[in-house]
Amino acid sequence: MVAIKGYEILKVLSNNVVLVREGDAKSILVGKGIGFAKKKGQVISNKDVIEDKFISLDALNDRDEAQFFAQVDPRVIEITEDIIIMASEELGESLNPNIHIGLIDHINYAIKRLNEGIEIVNPFLNETKFLYPKEYDIAEKAVTYISSTIDINIPVAEIGFIALHIHGGRSNSSKSKAMTFTKLISNLTKFVEDKLKISFDDYSFMYSRFVIHLQGVFDRVLNEQTLENIFLDKIMIELPYEVSLSKTIGMIIEKELGKPVPDSEIGYIALHISKLNFK
């Protein structure tokens, strides 16, 4: 957090949220009563009333900033900050500062859509819950908190979207990468179900084993790591159909991740498919 010397108030958004400037840097400060009876031009220097909630606006240009404040409900800013603090405490780590604006915007837009009667659908909910269980659990609590605070029914679909934001805010994590992995898992499991004429139980050992392996493949492909596969020649000969499916899966992965899948990985995927094929 930036050391607080004094913030000039640019706009009072609510009793608990103010837009301020320190030097050339603009920020949002959140704290109980921080905006009460305050006016533009006044200076806030008491860090105790800020409750350690400081949101940088460095990522927004003037046009984006104007649009952001024209659309966002100040209550959503407060709620989002509470959620981020809860997530940090439960994960035992600080989240990337860039999560603030993105999550505020997302929650605000979701509420707007719900108020307009627009249904929120998340086709990757089960995959998100499986891949990011800690984040999903926190997001579930976040949705309950939003619903009770604003008195609006937030659908289960939003849990998955908020979970991806939280995962993306963790160190060495990316929301876009998490979404790519989640979509890939969904597409690949559906592909295998169709080709093998099977139906996965999302919480079965069979599903878990296959998904965990695919997630490992994605990470190794992105990091350009290769696993040795001493059974590769045998797999290619004895499992031609599974190898054919695995090669298609490899092409799908390459298209999404932009990097080729090594033959050794193709062999291991084929081996996993063969286990599914005999269930």
Automatic annotation (TrEMBL):
Keywords linked to the UniProt accession: Repeat
SUPFAM superfamilies registered for this protein in UniProt: PTS-regulatory domain, PRD, SacY-like RNA-binding domain
Residue span(s) of domain PRD: 71-176, 177-279
Molecular functions (GO terms): RNA binding
GO BP, sorted A to Z: regulation of DNA-templated transcription
InterPro entries: BglG_antiterminators, CAT_RNA-bd_dom, CAT_RNA-bd_dom_sf, PRD, PRD_sf
TM spans (from-to): none
SMART domains, alphabetized: CAT_RBD (SM01061)
Keyword Repeat part of the UniProt annotation: yes
Name of the protein described by the UniProt record: Transcription antiterminator GlcT protein
Name of encoding gene: glcT
